[in-house]
Amino acid sequence: MTATRLLALGIGTLAMACSGGAKSKQGGSMSAMDKKVMVSMKMHDGQPFGPLEYGADYKDKFKLVSKGKFHSKPHGRRFVEVWVNDIGYDAYTSGKPLPVGSIIVKPSWQAKGGKPTTTAGPLFVMVKKPKGYSKEHNDWWYAIHWKHPPKRFSAGGKGLYWRSPSARVNYCWECHENYDNEVGLPPRAMRAWKQPADGS
C-alpha cells in the first residue's frame, strides 16, 4: 500500500482495516509507521475546498438507512451513519445494482473510548455516474469532504475536499470494490430496513 493510499482519508490505518492487514484496538493510537508517513507527505494535493457538489442536503432529502451511528474501521475507526437518496434507496435496501444518480452519504464522528464524540469527522460521499464516466471503477464518483480537519491533516487546518479523479480517493474505490457490492452496507443489526426472512 503506497503512502498516498494510506493518506486517502488523512489517517494511516484505514487501508489496513479494510484489507485485513494489521489490526488495532478500537480508538487506538496511530502506529509509528503511520505517523512517519503523515509527517513526510504533503497533505494537500491542490484540490480547492468548497461546497459539496453532491449530497449536501442529505439531512433534508435523503433517507437514513442505518439505525443511528455505528463503528466503522474502514472509515478511520470513526462512527458513521448511512444516508441514501430516493433514486438509490430501493436498490440499496434490496441488494440490487444502484441506478445512475444514486448518492450515498456517510457523515462521521471521531471516536473515544469506543463511543462517538460530538467532533465531526469527514463526510464520505459516493455517486453513481452515467455509463462511461469511470469504466475501471464501475462509474462511481467518490469524495471526502471535511470542513474542520485537524491541522496535521491539511494545509493550516483548512477544509479538505478530495474527490474523483484525485488519487486521494484511491482508498475509497479500492475498499468499496471488494465490499458489499460496492455500496458499504451497515452491519446487519444496524440496518434500518426490513430484512428478508432468510437473513440474506
Strand content: 15-25%
Question: Regions with pLDDT < 50 over 5+ consecutive residues?
Answer: 1-44
Mean pLDDT: 79
> What's the order of the H and E elements?
HHHHEEEEHEEEEH
Radius of gyration: 16 Å
How many structurally independent domains? 1
Number of helices: 6
Identify the CATH class.
Alpha Beta
Q: How would you characterize the largest beta sheet?
A: 8 strands, antiparallel
Number of strands: 8
Structural class: alpha+beta
Could you describe the 3D structure shown?
The protein is of the alpha+beta class. It has one domain: Chalcone isomerase. Helices cover 20% and strands 22% of the residues. The chain contains 6 helices and 8 strands, in the order ααααββββαββββα. The protein has helices spanning 3-6, 14-19, 32-40, 58-61, 86-94, 170-176; strands spanning 63-64, 70-72, 78-80, 83-84, 103-112, 115-128, 140-146, 160-163. The longest helix has 9 residues, at 32-40. The radius of gyration is 16 Å and the shape is globular.
Question: Which characteristics define this entry?
Answer:
eight-stranded antiparallel beta sheet; Chalcone isomerase; alpha+beta; 200 residues
Question: How does the SSE layout of this entry go?
Answer:
Elements: H1 3-6, H2 14-19, H3 32-40, H4 58-61, E1 63-64, E2 70-72, E3 78-80, E4 83-84, H5 86-94, E5 103-112, E6 115-128, E7 140-146, E8 160-163, H6 170-176
Antiparallel strand pairs: 1-4, 2-3, 3-5, 4-5, 5-6, 6-7, 7-8
